Amino acid sequence: MAELSGQQAQNYAAIRPTYPPELFRYIASKCPFRRLAWDAGTGCGQAAASLAALFDSVVATDINPEKLSYAPAHLLPNVRFALTPPALSLPDVHRLVAPPGAVDLVTVAQALHWFDRPAFYALARAVLRRPGGVLAAWCYLSPVVDGGEVDEIYRQVFEASAPYWSPESLMVKEEYTAVEFPFEAVEAEQETGPVGGFAAEREMTARDFVEYVRSGSPYQTARKKGLELFPAELVAKLERSWGGEGKQVKKVKFPISLRIGRVGEDGVDH
């Protein structure tokens, strides 16, 4: 994922949806211990903040210094934020994250599709507790607003963006169903996902919603090609449909797709 400018990182932090507490309670319930969690690709620290309430310590890492600058480090005394190189080596992960077998949970929120997954999985296995260390990765899907005209307007923009989806973004569009995930199921009767039933939320005005759509990778790709996927007339229509001249605050929901698994006794996942 490309590095963000200061203004882009600020906008990113302001409009990302909030993950529900029940998502983290579910994930933590699958961990035999809750001593240390590693939030990889932490961005502005949203997931790390929730993990801090459930684990003794959290290490939150990202390659983007601009995003990390908006993380609430001063409010989270048991979270250590760390800037990592884009290509994280095994010595790096032991130096910046944890020694072998010390991590109870690794999380990746809305970022796994940008990773070199085989390399990342190897690093996760190197620090996860054996047996039973858990890796949880999730993405959130297309927003749902009112089940009516606003959602129909978004659908139009979404369909227009289809030619500009990168292979990485397509993984999100496909709800991580095709992402390789070589870990054991967290319970014998389950598989490794995707697990549904959770949703991120954000209270938004019409303008917030437009900014959220415009922050997406497909929109940014089209814009670089000189194409406007959300033209002024469509924005005006959205604001009229939104209510209160677009200033009404609505709760926007983003369904979540979760992949979760654990390392086995010997660290080899079947």
UniProtKB/TrEMBL annotation:
GO MF annotation terms: S-adenosylmethionine-dependent methyltransferase activity
Protein name: Methyltransferase type 11 domain-containing protein
Superkingdom of this protein's organism: Eukaryota
Record-linked Pfam families: Methyltransf_11
Organism this protein belongs to: Apostasia shenzhenica
Annotated ranges, domain Methyltransferase type: 39-136
Lineage: Eukaryota, Viridiplantae, Streptophyta, Embryophyta, Tracheophyta
